[in-house]
Amino acid sequence: MASLYLGTGPLEQELVDCLQEVLERSREERMAPDLKVSILLDYSRGSRGKKNSRSMLLPLLQRFPGQMRVSLYHTPDLRGVLKTLVPERFNETIGLQHIKVYVFDDSLIISGANLSDSYFTNRQDRYILLRDCAELADFFSELVGAVGDVSLQLQPDDTVQVKEGMVHPYKGDHSEFCTVASKRIMQVVDLARARQQLSASTTEETQRRQGPGDTLVFPLVQMKPLGIGLDETVTKRLLTEAGDDSRVFLASGYFNLTRAYMELVLGTRADYRILLASPEVNGFFGAKGVAGAIPAAYIHIARQFYSKVCRGGQQDRIRLHEYIRRDWTFHAKGLWYYFQGSERPCLTLIGSPNFGYRSVHRDLEAQLAIVTENQGLQAELQQEQERLYAMSTEVSPSTFEQPNRTVKLWVKLVTPLIKNFF
Questions:
Q1: What is the pTM of this model?
Q2: Mean pLDDT, contiguous 10-residue spans, the chain (422 residues)
Q3: Catalytic residue among 100, 300, 331, 333
Q4: Are 283 and 329 in contact (CB under 8 A)?
Q5: Catalytic annotation, pick one of 74, 98, 224, 300
Q6: Is 105 annotated as catalytic?
Q7: C-alpha distances in angstroms, 93 versus 137, 314, 383?
């Protein structure tokens, strides 16, 4: 399991209890003596507060030391004076482990959701379950394992240690850590490529006997602090080649496109429908202190983007929609691509990236590109997209004149300086 963090409420405790039950059963009944549980979380987010992700998982680590592994990724960019001065919670803006993937034997769930009660109840996100996909499950298992290897290892006494042969993420040399981490993670990517090439002849023979498959699934990884930018490359290519009469539905829980993505959206000729959070469903809405101003910063960013659209006379081609749902928050992200003249999407991107600066440059991200000719799957993807957009209202010039869209001057002044951190 890879997530930003594990929450500390009753539902999360149920998940921990479930893990304990299956681990105990594997011992007692010897049904699965080789059962291993590996959990990858972010160090900063998982260590926040007295009761945290670490304290939730320690009992399992203490009881099943040979079967349980908890890895806490620490960005190499949070170090020295910066680590000393930046307070808890704000230190998470420097960089995070943001991958959300949950692997169970040969099946996996890819999502943008964390292991927290709100995601289990009233926080909107996306999930796709892929059953009996051994190659894909192996890839993500090995990817999580590789990131885990370069992370800090949680010990039964709540201390952390560096895995033997690895470089400490914030005490060791920055360049050396990034080089070692990149090499370890790219071993997984390169091995997957090699396996794919070796299986090509077998696949061709299978296609001759059974006919060609109708769906392709591509894992995409983005870890710019470690010099890995595969997801960014594919996303740029996809946005660049979106042609006339194509439709792109793009969702982000935190709408803050990179300059490159923004220029591609504004500069290409495809129709865009962009789904973002209204202030009330932003995860920071009502937060105390400076964090409470974050929804206003997103309003300012959205208004600036919408103004560019209007100045270019592109209101019909590029439309913004705000997700609004009482007592819910919005965290969904991804993309649905409708080919020219098609009523159903032939491609979706699903995973952890938000298409913003953080996703591209600061955090560790992963998602899937699913390309399909299967009409049943296309219909399900269309229904998913339509359900999300059905809970939204289209943005117009009057949207930003509403009383709850007023942005204080200090927020407008600060946003350009801090927009790359959220």
A1: 0.94
A2: 97 97 85 84 96 97 95 97 91 96 97 96 97 96 98 97 96 97 96 86 64 89 97 96 92 95 95 96 79 88 96 96 96 96 95 96 98 97 98 95 90 88 81
A3: 100
A4: yes
A5: 98
A6: yes
A7: 30, 33, 34
